Amino acid sequence: LTSPNDFVLPYAKMEAQASQGSRDTLRAYLGTIPNYTSEVEGVPLTGIRKDSPADKAGLQAKDVIVGLGDQSVKNIYDYTYALDAVTIGEPTQIRVIRGTETLSLPITPMARP
User: Which CATH architecture has domain 27-111?
Assistant: First the structure.
């Protein structure tokens, strides 16, 4: 480092990286409201946010998510991992159990509003 400007570039680079957002802003958003206390396999839903990707895909309260994209979902941790694996704006499939039926529905994740 030979001049005061030698400090500017590294700082500017760090600032640019920070402005790209935190990990939470990069995670895909579906608008599901999971039941975190359930003991069933999969992720049961207590609700769906209005006008969300989940709402547009036709998901309903009491559906149980068992897959997202190419990931199987057995618990909330699997669901979080699957959300990290899908791409915002890119259509994928979500698999749910509704009553006695297993459905595969198209869904397009979005950035968190």
Answer: Roll (2.30)
